[in-house]
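Thread title: Can someone regenerate the structure for this chain?

I was given the following input by a collaborator and told the matching C-alpha cells would be attached. They weren't. Posting the sequence so someone can regenerate them.
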Amino acid sequence: MTLKDTQDFLYSQISTEDGEEIIRIFNYYIENSDAAFLESSVTISFFEQLKPLLEHYPNVAVWESYGNFIGFGLMRPHN
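Best answer:
Regenerated them for you:
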C-alpha cells in the first residue's frame, strides 16, 4: 500500500486489506441513512464485487495519521 502523508490524513489506493473497514463504513450508511441506496447490511462478499472496479477506476482509502480508517471513495462507470 502506497500512502501519501499529509499532516492529518494518509491517502492510498484501496487494497484488499481495507475491505472490512469499507464494509463497516458502508453498513453504517445503510443502517442510518439512504446514502448507500441499499436496505440491508452487506457482508465482505460485497467488497469482493467491488474489487474489479478498483483495478480500472480511480479509488482512495483515507486514514487518520494515527491509524483510524475514516473513509473511502471509488468511481464506477455510469449506467
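The first strand starts at residue 4 and ends at 5.
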